[in-house]
Design a protein that fits this description.
The complex is a heterodimer of chains A (1031) and B (497).
Chain A lengths: L1 H16 L5 E8 L10 E4 L5 E3 L5 E6 L4 E5 L6 E4 L8 E2 L11 E2 L5 E2 L8 E5 H5 L17 E5 L8 E5 L12 E4 L2 E3 L3 H4 L5 E7 L16 E6 L9 E13 L35 E4 L9 E4 L14 E13 L3 E13 L6 E15 L2 E17 L8 H7 L31 H7 E19 L4 E20 L18 E24 L4 E26 L14 E23 L3 E12 L8 E11 L1 H4 L8 E15 L10 E2 L13 E2 L2 E3 L6 E14 L4 E20 L8 E24 L3 E11 L1 E6 L6 E8 L3 E6 L6 E7 L7 E2 L9 E10 L4 E11 L2 E11 L2 E4 L1 H7 L19 E4 L7 E3 L10 H8 L7 E3 L2 E12 L12 E15 L22 E2 L7 E11 L1
Parallel strand pairs in A: 1-7, 13-16, 34-37, 43-48, 47-53
Antiparallel strand pairs in A: 1-4, 2-3, 2-5, 5-6, 8-9, 10-15, 11-12, 13-14, 15-16, 17-20, 17-54, 18-19, 20-21, 21-22, 22-23, 23-24, 24-25, 25-26, 26-27, 27-28, 28-29, 29-30, 30-31, 31-35, 32-33, 35-36, 36-37, 37-38, 37-39, 38-45, 40-41, 41-42, 42-44, 45-46, 46-51, 47-50, 48-49, 51-52, 52-54
Helix pairs in contact in A: 4-5, 4-7
Chain B lengths: L1 H17 L3 H4 L13 H17 L8 H8 L3 E3 L7 H4 L10 H18 L7 H22 L21 H20 L18 H18 L8 H9 L9 E3 L12 H6 L15 E3 L1 H9 L5 H4 L39 E4 L1 H13 L7 H16 L4 H11 L7 H7 L2 H13 L4 H11 L24 H6 L22
Antiparallel strand pairs in B: 1-3, 2-4
The chains are: A mainly beta (1031), B mainly alpha (497).
Chain lengths: 1031, 497
């Protein structure tokens, strides 16, 4: 790689030398009020010679007298200026308020003017995306657009996240937004491994209306990513970008600091116990751990150590280095980029490496234009796995009593009191041993090629053909090293473990072919028409192979070849094919009234053959009064657009879902005994496509030359006849029944507000605010069914359900029995609160209000930007509290000093069934120690479902751009330095003492979230430095 | 020239579209799982699930026998493991062990139902076995829940919300199905295929008839407190010439010392493959002090087969007491009589149970025979089942030397303790093996009388039933009968009343 960079620079310097010109001019470009404009493009007409203004609006350019300068800037009228004898050319640009001539890239790469759009979109520019140097694109979207809800579900070195637009609507299908890169749909994971520096813009299409042309997959909205391209007639430009960030554990779960080791009711001290139900800390020296065979033992002060568990973690370091090269000639352009990300995690030993390469090129010859995009991604992950007996190291770490200096036990193979045979804990392993002996490694890579051919038959007929192929493969190897305890030990030790290995590969291929013919014609002076007719074909094939050996006779190598016993594993191949025809018509009247309509017919392989063809459509209307009525515009109001749209989108079933097959049960074959059982999934032979209907309406308004911009949009989405695994009574012989059922409604408001409160020559303050509300309701499920389980539950103690009449999804768990006054009902005999027999609804896990705020303050060459968001109206259940409760470490378990107490706000029934409740003022709980908290209290999972509201400062970035005057005699065009910080500050609801409420294990399947696990490490924040150089 | 090329491209695309036929779309079939089966293939799968329901119904260690063993006061957990605290505290909600219902219906019963209703000639023996095993599971579900789904069961997508039937009516219908199965075997035609894949009784159809007849006896005795006159049924099972089982009925598809292929009891309460790493409940599952002390106090040599000595003694754990004194390394581990190897049989009816059933029925004058002889034979069978050396002689010594009036038959007979003696012996013989039967006997007879209610239990009476599962409430709410808060303790199955 280093060699590669050197070659690049060499190449760059040669290119620069070849541009020596006759004379050098300078100048300042300003706006209509005399304020300097940074980033204005200045090009010598007809050449590739050009530059951009710096942050003070200044530029320097070598030209010949008589050259024509083309000066262009987004939102301003392009100006041409001939070079005369003057060496200073100052220009002031006029804003182009009549037509914001930018185009928005919509479905299938179709460019449309914002005026035409009858639906809500948000466009994010590259600067906004990369301001805080994100490693993955998903986190860079948070807070920046309305309608968007992003959950990062884990905090490891290679996190996964989920992007949801306008709430959850699918019960068991996919709820994630469609990810499209350069016109070709991708898997959701793509967002996590794109090089963010490659992105030119992201357009967020929030609702189905905008993406009817993507068909089924666009039903949840789409994130349209356009990567950078070289511009025609652009000189070669090289960008080098380097970032280093440091990651630290934040918001570690709070624990009690009053009581130490013990596991009985009677405050007995137990030196080898991981639970903390022992005597009160007294600071006196006590034995910790067993008495070793040689008679020695550890003695430690019996006092809590601040941050003893947090000290387990390291500071993670992330290095990002990226280079890009772009340019173009008269008829061609190119863009090349490379990026490497090197990461070490907060968990000791966790590592991640990622490489991205991209080459985009276009060439035009006459009426024929080709563009090619090739990108390659690879990554390598090496993270701690779980112990087969003890589970995740984090859970074990959380269990550790407060007086154990856990980070002293790092050298688990050699240190006297840290080895498995000598470690203090009799029941669970040293977490350092777990992370060292259990490793999960994975590699994946993706090669994508997109070829686009464009042919202009004449000035109003164009044909475009796009072929996109994505080859993705990944492999993993999970290894587990054996440990055998010394059998002569007389004290209790955890279980022996054996050597084992799991190996697997996934290989998939996705091919998309799109053919479009575009007719675009001004029919009369007043009426314009555009008709797009197209065909889409897609194929997808995936193959997975896994093998494993549950017991290996050596740990020198980890391979199924050195196993004892049988080989485990399997293979599976799935395929999908779909083709469609579609049409889209846009009629424009005098540039201020647009009517659009589209229709698409899909034929899919995943549906029963009689029902496999289905059509759907959308229609929209947009009206721009400021253009229709001349008098409206000017002075205060610049622009007003009103829009409304309707869309209906069909969706097919999942691959292979319609098959009722026989399954080889677990364990079979037993030698020669073979077996097959019927599947527990019944399938409706009449299964038909599902549909969602959405209606939206809104306006966009701009005041004071775009100093105030406001977009507001209301949406209503109805998803019905969902292809769905309705729960079947087990008595039917099946557990679930795949059929068309139910209806879910989502409605909400999306507001995007942009303000420029202050704007002076040296100082500008930009402020943005987004508001998203979402209200979902399950209208109906299968006949007679009141609720449907979705996603994974946690050990049968808390489960997500769709419940008729409630928000979707909702978390259900055993709760308190309450009397009519809302008091907690206790058992009069024991004093303990009663637990409901049935699971009760404890709230929705999806926020009903998200507010995002962005701000940018520029003073001369210094820019400070920040992004924050607030989510509320939802709850979550993170099972770290379960681990803490078990271990006697929750703060509340020490709140009564482990003594029986009168349960707050409680009552009891005078006699069973009397229905008469009396306030409880004197009956104390059965205990205040282990039995009470670990069982009686722990059974009421309502205790652990907490408010998930949080305010997060997601990004803070401070940038300094070196003024161009310092760079005049260097090959450098621009140089900037910056400080970045991500997720450093979070305010949580008071009752959430545990973790980041966004962490969730439920990312697969329906993608519903709300239950987290102790397999996920604590939240982290990052801070660091960045540098950017342009040649 | 260029136009020609472009036109060629368009043509190519049109051709590719034309090929988008049904064949193009025919890629949705599974490449992993076959679309059809046969009784030969599905019977062993169903039988393996039968064993799983009794010993590990959901791969999370819930089972009929574990729950029964706990509620019968036999199974406990060590003081430093909190495995069965919920069970021992008698905390029962709709989620408690719900996989017993769900998986019995969908994995065991529906697989048998597939065999029973298979369209194809010559499968009468397979179908008879399926009927007998369906009866075995349905009876247990009625015992556990009361009214359940029966007549509308197994219609899958055609009826995902089947109605519930009256428990007594189901018991009678199932009983009748056992008669049908016995007749099918007796009257099987010449073309009937021999059963080649039976992993319970190896295709011995005579033995299947005896098993069916013994199940009938079990079901009749369950109803002993109902006041129903079942004389005709007792007479029929005695006079039909079939007899009762002569050996323990067990499942063994060929259990191996491999992950997922072990005997389910051994896998849960014993060891992982290799025999050294404890299974998921291995460090936890222990005998209760009541159970072990009763054997200690009565010189019962079975204690040394059921448990391992700790410091020369057999030490149990009081239920629901979590104390350092009962840490796993201070109390008795499970012994070789129940934890033998990964490939041990999974019992679904002990011979000793069959003999004790006959003893009880004879003692109650419901069948002919000498109850004392059956009783003593039952003890001998239990000694044999647990591998006591010189089992028959040791059993005779144990019984005859005992002065305890609920062990020594003559003493028991003298004071009218016969039924208590029989049920207490069933409790010892089956406590760890067929815990569900032991629990149901305790519900029916309140014997053994000396089993205490665990400290800190949520109820002062031991449970009699489970509640309808959450999955049923969610999927079949229109039909699930309403249950009161006390339904797990109210002895609501018809024969309990």
């Amino acid at each position: 790689m280093n060699q590669g960079y050197k070659l690049f620079f060499l190449f760059v310097f040669f290119s620069i030398c070849s541009y020596a010109q006759e004379k050098s001019i300078t100048g300042t470009i300003s706006d209509e009020s005399g304020l300097p404009l940074p980033g204005v493009n200045i090009i010598v007409k007809g050449t590739t010679n050009g530059t951009q203004t710096d942050f003070d609006g200044n530029y320097t350019l070598s030209v010949n007298t008589g050259d024509v300068l083309q000066i262009s800037y987004l939102g301003y009228t392009t100006l041409e200026q001939t070079v005369d004898s003057n060496n200073v050319i100052n220009v002031s640009l006029e804003p182009d308020v009549t037509a914001i001539d930018e185009v928005v890239i919509t479905a299938l790469g179709i460019k449309r003017k914002p005026k035409e759009l009858a639906y809500a979109t948000t466009e994010l520019k590259k600067e906004t995306l990369v301001q805080a140097a994100p490693v993955d694109v998903a986190t860079a979207l948070s807070g920046k657009s309305s309608g968007l809800n992003i959950n990062t579900s884990d905090n490891g070195v290679n996190p996964t996240s989920q992007v949801v637009l306008r709430g959850f609507s699918s019960l068991t299908g996919n709820n994630g937004a469609l990810i499209v890169v350069d016109g070709v749909p991708q898997s959701q994971g793509t967002l996590n491994n794109l090089n963010a520096n490659d992105i030119e813009s992201i357009n967020i299409l929030k609702g189905a209306s905008s993406v009817t042309l993507y068909g089924s997959k666009g039903a949840n909205g789409a994130i349209i990513i356009t990567t950078k391209r070289g511009a025609n007639n652009e000189k070669i430009s090289i960008n080098f970008n380097s970032v280093v960030t440091f990651e630290e554990v934040k918001y570690f779960p709070e624990t009690q600091t009053k009581f130490g080791s013990g596991s009985t009711q009677n405050f007995e001290y137990d030196p080898i116990e991981n639970e903390s139900w022992g005597p009160r800390y007294d600071g006196l020296p006590r034995r910790v751990g067993p008495i070793l065979a040689d008679g020695t033992y550890q003695v430690l002060p019996y006092a809590p150590i601040k941050d003893n568990k947090k000290d387990f973690f390291d500071t993670g370091i992330t290095l990002q280095n990226a280079i890009s090269l772009s340019g173009g000639g008269e008829n061609s352009s190119y863009f090349f980029s490379a990026q490497r990300v090197d990461k070490t995690g907060v968990t000791p030993g966790d590592e991640y490496v990622r490489d991205n390469f991209r080459f985009n090129a276009t060439r035009k010859s006459g009426k024929f234009e080709t563009s090619t995009s090739v990108s390659f991604f690879q990554d390598k992950t090496d993270v701690a796995g779980a112990s087969p007996n003890d589970g995740s190291y984090y859970r074990i770490l959380l269990n550790t009593p407060g007086h154990i200096p856990i980070s002293n036990y790092r050298n688990w193979r050699t240190d006297k009191f840290s080895t498995p045979d000598t470690y203090f804990n009799a029941y669970f392993k040293n977490p350092y041993q777990i992370i060292d002996q259990n490793r999960n490694t994975a590699r994946s890579n993706r090669l994508q090629g997109i070829a686009r051919l464009n042919y202009e038959f004449n000035d109003w007929i164009t044909a475009t053909y796009t072929l996109g192929g994505t080859w993705f493969n990944s492999s993993f190897k999970n290894t587990q090293e054996a440990w055998q305890y010394d059998p002569s030990l007389t004290y209790t030790r955890p279980s022996d473990e054996v050597n084992a290995v799991q190996d697997g590969m996934t290989d998939n291929f996705r091919l998309n072919s799109d053919f479009l013919i575009n007719f675009d014609r001004q029919i009369t002076e007043d009426i314009s028409a555009r008709l797009i007719l197209g065909n889409h074909v897609e194929t997808f094939r995936s193959k997975q192979v896994n093998v494993g050996g549950n017991n290996l006779f050596t740990n020198v190598i980890y391979n199924v070849n050195v196993r004892t016993g049988e080989l485990t594993g399997g293979e599976g191949t799935t395929q999908k094919r779909l083709y469609s025809y579609f049409g889209d018509l846009t009629l424009g009247f005098r540039d201020y009234l647009y009517l659009t309509g589209s229709y698409r017919q899909d034929i899919s392989s995943t549906l029963p053959i009689d029902n496999n063809s289905y059509g759907y459509y959308s229609a929209g209307l947009s009206f721009i009064p400021t253009d229709a009525f001349e008098g409206l515009k000017g002075g205060i109001l610049d622009y007003l657009k009103l829009s409304a749209s309707y869309a209906r989108v069909g969706n097919d079933a999942g691959i292979g879902q319609t098959n009722e097959n026989f399954i080889v049960p677990g364990g079979f074959p037993f030698g020669t005994t073979t077996g097959l059982r019927p599947t527990t999934v019944a399938v409706d032979p009449e299964l038909s496509p599902e549909f969602s209907t959405s209606i939206e309406g809104g306006f966009n308004i701009e005041f004071f030359k775009r100093r105030i911009t406001l977009g507001a949009n209301y949406y209503f989405v109805k998803s019905e006849d969902q292809i769905n695994f309705s729960q079947a009574s087990a008595g039917s012989g099946a557990r679930s029944y795949l059929t068309n059922i139910g209806e879910i409604q989502n409605k909400g408001l999306e507001i995007d507000l942009g303000l420029v409160p202050l704007k002076y020559k040296d100082f500008q303050w930009d402020l943005g605010m987004t508001v998203t509300t979402n209200k979902s309701e399950v209208i109906s499920l299968a006949d007679g069914a009141e609720r449907l389980q979705v996603g994974t539950g946690f050990q049968n103690t808390a489960t997500l359900f769709a419940q008729v009449g409630e928000a979707y999804p909702a978390i259900f768990a055993p709760g308190y029995v309450r009397d009519p006054q809302g008091r907690v009902v206790i058992d009069a005999n024991t004093g303990d609160p009663l637990v409901t027999n049935e699971f009760i609804n404890l709230g929705s896990t999806v926020p009903d209000l998200i507010i995002g705020a962005t701000t940018k303050i520029r003073y001369k060459d210094l820019t400070l930007s920040a992004v924050a968001d607030y989510k509320t109206g939802h709850v979550f259940y993170n099972t770290v509290v379960e681990a803490l409760e078990f271990a006697g470490l929750t703060v509340h378990s020490a709140s009564t000093n482990r003594q029986p107490f009168v349960f707050p706000n409680s009552s009891y029934e005078t006699s069973p069934g009397s229905g008469v409740y009396v306030a409880n003022n004197n009956i104390t709980t059965s205990g205040g120690n282990r039995n009470f908290w670990q069982t009686s209290y722990n059974n009421i999972k309502e205790n652990y479902v907490v408010d998930a509201s949080a305010i997060k400062i997601r990004e803070i970035a401070l940038d300094y751009n070196l003024p161009s005057k310092f760079l005049e005699n260097t090959p450098i065009d621009a140089l900037s330095f910056g400080i970045v910080a991500n997720n450093l500050i979070m305010w949580r609801a008071k009752e959430n003492k545990y973790t980041d409420p966004e962490f969730s294990i439920n990312t697969g399947g329906a993608g519903v979230s709300g239950i987290g696990s102790s397999g996920q490490t604590p939240p982290t924040g990052t801070y660091g430095f960045k540098m950017n150089v342009n040649f | 020239m260029k136009n020609i090329k472009t036109n060629l491209l368009l043509l190519l695309m049109l051709v590719s579209l034309a090929s988008c036929s049904d064949e193009f779309l025919d890629v949705n079939d599974s490449s992993t799982n076959p679309p059809s089966s046969t009784p030969e293939l599905t019977l062993p799968a169903a039988q393996k699930y039968s064993a799983d329901m009794m010993y590990n119904a959901n791969n999370a260690n819930n089972s009929f026998n574990l729950l029964g063993g706990i509620y019968a006061g036999v199974i406990s957990d060590s003081g430093d493991r909190v495995w069965y605290q919920t069970e021992q505290s008698y905390i029962i909600n709709n989620d408690t062990y719900q996989s017993l219902w769900n998986n019995t219906y969908t994995l065991a019963l529906y697989s048998y139902h597939y065999v029973e209703t298979y369209q194809g000639p010559g499968y009468d023996y397979y179908k008879a076995i399926a009927k007998i095993m369906k009866a075995y599971h349905f009876a247990a579900l009625v015992d556990m829940y009361g009214d359940i789904i029966y007549s509308e069961a197994f219609q899958r997508g055609e009826n995902t919300q089947p109605a519930y039937d009256d428990d007594e009516a189901i018991y009678n219908a199932v009983y009748e199905q056992l008669n049908v199965a016995i007749d099918m075997i007796s009257n099987a035609g010449a073309g009937t295929r021999a059963v080649t894949t039976d992993v319970i009784l190896g295709g011995d159809m005579n033995a299947w008839q005896k098993f069916a007849n013994t199940l009938k006896l079990r079901m009749l005795l369950r109803q002993v407190n109902t006041g129903e006159d079942l004389t005709a049924q007792y007479n029929e099972i005695m006079n039909n010439g079939i007899g009762f089982i002569e050996n323990t009925v067990s499942v063994n598809p060929g259990y191996l010392d491999e992950t997922g292929k072990q005997n389910p009891f051994y896998a849960v309460h014993g060891f992982a493959p290799g025999g050294t790493t404890p299974g998921p409940n291995g460090g936890a599952t222990r005998g209760s002090d009541t159970y072990i002390d009763f054997m200690n106090d009565n010189n019962d040599p079975r204690v040394a087969r059921l448990f391992l000595p700790r410091g020369g003694e057999y030490i149990g754990v009081p239920q629901n007491v979590y104390d350092n004194a009962y840490n796993s390394n201070l109390v008795s581990d499970l012994g070789p009589g129940i934890l033998n190897s990964s490939s041990q049989d999974a019992q679904i009816m002990l011979l000793s149970e069959a003999l004790f059933l006959q003893a009880e029925a004879a003692q109650r004058n419901l069948i002919t025979g000498n109850p004392g002889d059956f009783y003593k034979a039952g003890i001998a069978a239990s000694f044999t089942e647990l591998g006591v050396p010189n089992a028959v002689a040791a059993a005779a010594d144990y019984e005859s030397n005992s002065i305890n009036p609920i062990i020594n038959w003559e003493s028991a007979d003298g004071v009218g303790n016969e039924i208590e003696a029989i049920i207490t012996q069933k409790w010892i013989a089956g406590g760890f093996i067929s815990g569900f039967e032991v629990w149901m006997d305790r519900v029916r007879t309140n014997f053994p009388s000396f089993v205490p209610i665990p400290v800190g239990a949520a109820s002062s009476v031991f449970p009699s039933n489970l509640l309808y599962p959450t999955a049923e409430l969610a999927s079949n709410s229109a039909n699930v009968p309403a249950q009161g808060a006390n339904a797990a303790f109210d002895r609501h199955t018809f024969w309990m009343q």
